[in-house]
Amino acid sequence: xxxxxxxxxxxxxxxxxxxxxxxxxxxxxxxxxxxxxxxxxxxxxxxxxxxxxxxxxxxxxxxxxxxxxxxxxxxxxxxxxxxxxxxxxxxxxxxxxxxxxxxxxxxxxxxxxxxxxxxxxxxxxxxxxxxxxxxxxxxxxxxxxxxxxxxxxxxxxxxxxxxxxxxxxxxxxxxxxxxxxxxxxxxxxxxxxxxxxxxxxxxxxxxxxxxxxxxxxxxxxxxxxxxxxxxxxxxxxxxxxxxxxxxxxxxxxxxxxxxxxxxxxxx
Length: 267
What we know:
Layout: H1 2-26, E1 28-30, H2 31-38, H3 42-54, E2 58-61, E3 64-67, H4 69-72, H5 79-84, H6 87-98, E4 106-109, E5 128-132, H7 135-142, E6 149-153, E7 157-159, E8 164-166, H8 168-174, E9 181-184, E10 188-190, E11 194-197, H9 203-212, E12 215-219, E13 231-234, E14 241-244, H10 250-258, E15 262-265
Parallel strand pairs: 4-5, 4-9, 5-6, 9-12, 12-14, 14-15
Antiparallel strand pairs: 1-3, 2-3, 7-8, 10-11, 11-13
Helix pairs in contact: 2-3
């Protein structure tokens, strides 16, 4: 019964991800079209849309939905919306990133919708210490029942909309650790200029971990490649690898190789 519930939840997320992608492309969705495409009943799609409206992602209209005013006005979506964007691509990236974790590692995982599913893909037999500034990752850990994972929260000021811990306390606690590996995401990975983010609140923790970790991996789906944001995060000097879901162009690969960075494609 439990596995069936997990399976239903997963398909629910995948449906929402498809709905959100269709809204980004066409501006609106039809209950009938989505129902026919996914081969599920119309009431299931209506329920998905009701939940997405409660999460302030969509605005329901007769026969379907459009993007909510809340989402149309902002450059970066709220966390819950970002979590289902490119959902399957992010799952693949998390699986590949987890394969880089070794028994006995101490790792840092940042607060990101891209990294959230990494915990469940770490070998459950490995003894691993995970440092994080992510409330969502802490909640994810409670679902795993894995006693081999030791989770360390760096503390700080709670940002409810982003499920993160930030501020002076978070920055000071971050400096106490020198993890074997850090797994970070960001708003954009510009192959020529470096890493960008969309706000200043969590950027200092990322910079600290880029400097103090023995190895750092950037997890970014294809939509983030060669995208720049309003805040410059860092150059590539402390980046060891970039994990993405689609091959890069030859020009992009050349820029990455020039910085001695391993390019890992999550197929």
